[in-house]
Amino acid sequence: MEDLKNVANENETEKAPKPVQGKHIVREYAESICIAILLALVIRTFIVQAFKIPSGSMEDTLAIGDHILVNKFIYGAKLPFSTTRIVKLRDPRQGDVIVFEYPEDPSKDFIKRVVGVPGDTVEVKHKRVYVNGKLYANPHEIHKESEEIPKEANPRDNKDAVVVPPNSYFVMGDNRDRSYDSRFWGFVGKDAIKGLAFIKYWSWDKDRFRVRFGSIGKLID
Predict the structure, then answer these.
(1) Enzyme catalytic residues
(2) Name one GO biological process term (predicted).
(3) Using DSSP, how many helices (H) and how many strands (E) does the chain show?
(4) How many other CB atoms are found less than 10 A from the CB of residue 161?
(5) Are 52 and 70 in contact (CB under 8 A)?
(6) Which domains does the chain have, with CATH numbers?
(7) Three-state SS for 122?
């Protein structure tokens, strides 16, 4: 009888569930967190990245407080620590709203509209932009100041014709009178472009302390 009891006790011991060790749970959480971080880095580097609009240089297309998403693969996603781009769909075109590293301080990101592509001749006369001798009529362009500044003072309203070099772009803000852009500091190199702005996913008006619901989900054109 004692032998049978011992066998029964051994069987019950074998069938009893083993306690889950705490370190296994910690390991699972750590692996999940690492995978999530890795996926976030891949998405941010190669697919899409979020940006916030800090200034009014692109009004009224983009307002201060708009949060936007930028397509990073359309012009070719840049490999980290390299100028090599992969999976390019097309080059930037006139009218594209792009995010790029500010040429005079690459640690800052700027957002402007492409006006001239490689080989184009761009000229500004009396606040009007001419590309290859033809008026570039951008429906998003606005002027908030009636005063015209002479060319001798600064190139905001009058700039001599320039030819856009290879692998470079001439960009301007839609808020033409209040934008610091290619008229002042020159061209944007292709390697400095981060992507194409394509949609607003959030917008906060800090002056009125309210959400701009009409802007959320609005495509950027």
Answers:
(1) 57, 112
(2) signal peptide processing
(3) 3, 14
(4) 12
(5) no
(6) 48-219 (2.10.109.10)
(7) strand
Name the nearest CA neighbour of 130 among 179, 94, 167.
94
Q: Which residue, chain included where needed, has tokens 């201060």?
A: 64
pTM: 0.83
CA pseudo-torsion sign 108, 120, 179, 155: positive
User: Counting Cβ atoms within 10 Å, is residue 108 exposed (0-12), middle (13-18) or buried (19+)?
Assistant: exposed
- φ, ψ dihedrals at 191, nearest 5°: -65, -20
Print pLDDT tens along the chain (221 aa). Answer: 444 444 444 444 455 555 555 567 887 777 778 887 777 666 666 689 999 999 999 999 999 999 999 999 999 988 777 777 888 899 999 999 999 999 999 999 999 999 999 999 999 999 999 999 999 989 999 999 999 999 999 999 999 999 999 999 999 999 999 999 999 999 999 999 999 999 999 999 999 999 999 999 999 99
**Token pair of 187 as six digits:** 């061209």
- C-alpha R_g of the chain: 28
Beta strand pairing call for 66-71 and 168-172: unpaired
Instruction: Look at residue 142 and give its three-state secondary structure.
Output: strand
Before 60, cis peptide (omega within 30)?
Answer: yes
In the block, which residue shows the tokens 């190669």? 46
- Distance (Å, rounded) from C-alpha 193 to C-alpha 43? 17
